[in-house]
């Protein structure tokens, strides 16, 4: 009995073809991925191995219409629809790349740096003040301390 681990193998059908160099290769790649030739733009041939895979816009799952009759509603995609190369990072349970910030980014940096500055300032201010529980000197037998023992 043998079994194959999904992390050990890959499907050759998922491998993109070589980077299109001619217009005929470009048209064939656009038809392969079901895109009009006007919308088809491959990733640049920079050695990352994307080949003829189309460079799709980054649209998160949260930005897609939840009431549209998707073929696969869990992933909000239709049958034979090409997936983005970073699809595993843009699903609904991951980072939302389409989200609009409520405030400008400089405001968030100002909040972060202000909070960290206050924490560091309190740390350095209180560095000289050592805090520990108050203790009295140890009391040993046969030594008179401030207790109710009588002196000999």
TrEMBL record:
Instruction: Give the record's keywords alphabetically.
Output: Membrane, Transmembrane, Transmembrane helix
Q: Which InterPro entries match?
A: NDUFB8
Q: Where are the transmembrane segments?
A: 106-125
Query: Region Disordered: start and end of each range?
Result: 1-22
| GO CC term, one of those recorded | mitochondrion
Question: What highest taxon heads this organism's lineage?
Answer: Eukaryota
Q: Which PANTHER family match?
A: NADH DEHYDROGENASE [UBIQUINONE] 1 BETA SUBCOMPLEX SUBUNIT 8, MITOCHONDRIAL (PTHR12840:SF1), NADH-UBIQUINONE OXIDOREDUCTASE ASHI SUBUNIT (PTHR12840)
Q: What is this protein called?
A: NADH dehydrogenase [ubiquinone] 1 beta subcomplex subunit 8, mitochondrial
**Species the sequence originates in:** Exocentrus adspersus
């Amino acid at each position: 009995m043998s079994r194959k681990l999904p992390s050990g193998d890959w499907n050759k059908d998922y491998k993109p073809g070589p980077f299109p160099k001619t217009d005929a290769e470009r048209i064939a790649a656009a038809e392969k991925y079901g895109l009009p030739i006007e919308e088809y733009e491959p990733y640049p041939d920079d050695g990352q191995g994307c080949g003829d895979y189309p460079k799709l816009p980054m649209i998160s799952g949260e930005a897609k219409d939840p009431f549209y009759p998707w073929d696969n509603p869990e992933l909000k995609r239709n049958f034979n629809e090409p997936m983005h190369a970073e699809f595993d990072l843009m699903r609904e349970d991951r980072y939302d790349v389409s989200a609009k910030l409520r405030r400008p980014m400089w405001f968030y940096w100002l909040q972060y740096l202000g909070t960290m500055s206050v924490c560091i300032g309190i740390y350095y201010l209180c560095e000289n003040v050592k805090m520990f529980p108050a203790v009295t000197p140890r009391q040993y037998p046969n030594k008179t301390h401030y207790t109710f023992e009588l002196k000999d």
